[in-house]
Amino acid sequence: MPILGIIASSKKASPPVSGYTLWLDAADASVFTYSSGTIVSQWTDKSGNNYNFTQATLSFQPDRQNNVQNGLPSVVFNADFLINTLWDWSVIAFTVFAVIKNRSDPNNDAFLSREYSALALGYDNTNKFAIHRAGFVTSASNLINTGSNADVAVWKSAGVSSGNISVDFYKNGTAGSAALTLTSVTAGTRTLLGALYDNTTDPIVGHISELLIYPSELSDTNRNSVEAYLKTKWGTP
C-alpha cells in the first residue's frame, strides 16, 4: 500500500482497545448534523450506545472546521456547548481520553462536565489539567496545557463514591505527579461538552478532536495503546 494510503487508513482506524461507552470523532464527517454550513447541531456517538451530543440553540452551536489538527477537522468551541442527558459517566469508574486544545485565558475551564455543582474535567486558572466542581473548588495536576498544539489528555478514576472522587492525570503519555481528590461532588443532571453549565460559565475556547470514555480504569498497557493511537492520528506531541 502506498505511504499516503497507510496514513489515510490509520486516520480511519478504530481505537485499539474495545469496550468504550462513548466515541466522538471529529474526523468522521458522517457523524455530524448541521443547522447550517459547518455549524454543529448534533455530534453522533460512534460507540453504538447512541450517547449523542446535541444543541438546539443556534447561538450555542460549535463549528466543525477543516484542517485544524494534523490536517484533519476538529470541532471548534467558542463559548459553545453540546448536551447529552442519557447517561452519567462520572458515578462509576472511568478513563476519559480527550484530544483537546484550550486557546483562551483559562478560568477553571471545563470541557466535559456533569452540570450543576457536579464534577468537571478541564483546566485550572493557570491552564493546568484539573478536576473541579462548579468552578469554585479545583484540584490541579502538575501537567500544563501545551498551548501550541492539542494534547492527548487522560483522566482516570474509580468514580464518585460517597461524594468524593480521586483522579489520576496523564498528558501525552506522561503521568501527573499525584492523584487528586475532590469532596462534596454531587451527581449532575446533564453531561455538557464544552462548558460547565451554560455558555458563560467556564467554557473552553479551543477545539476538541476526539473523545473516548471507557467505563473502567484502564491498565497502563491499554492506556498507552489508546494514547499511541490518538497521538498518531492527531499529530500531538
Structural descriptors:
2 helices, mainly beta, 237 residues, six-stranded antiparallel β-sheet, nine-stranded antiparallel β-sheet, globular, Jelly Rolls, disordered N terminus
What order do the helices and strands come in, and which of them pair?
Layout: H1 3-12, E1 22-25, E2 32-36, E3 39-43, E4 53-54, E5 63-69, E6 72-78, E7 82-84, E8 94-102, E9 110-114, E10 119-123, E11 128-133, E12 137-144, E13 151-157, E14 165-171, E15 174-175, E16 180-182, E17 191-193, E18 205-214, H2 220-234
Helix pairs in contact: 1-2
Description:
Strands 1, 5, 6, 8, 13, 14, 15, 16 and 18 form a nine-stranded antiparallel beta sheet that branches. The protein has helices spanning about 5-10, 220-235; strands spanning about 20-25, 30-35, 40-45, 55, 65-70, 70-80, 80-85, 95-100, 110-115, 120-125, 130-135, 135-145, 150-155, 165-170, 175, 180, 190-195, 205-215. A hairpin with a 7-residue loop joins strand 13 (about 150-155) and strand 14. Helix 1 (about 5-10) crosses helix 2. Helices cover about 10% and strands about 40% of the residues. The protein has a domain at about 15-25 and about 85-235: Jelly Rolls, CATH 2.60.120.200. With about 240 residues, it is mainly beta. The chain starts with a helix and ends with a helix.
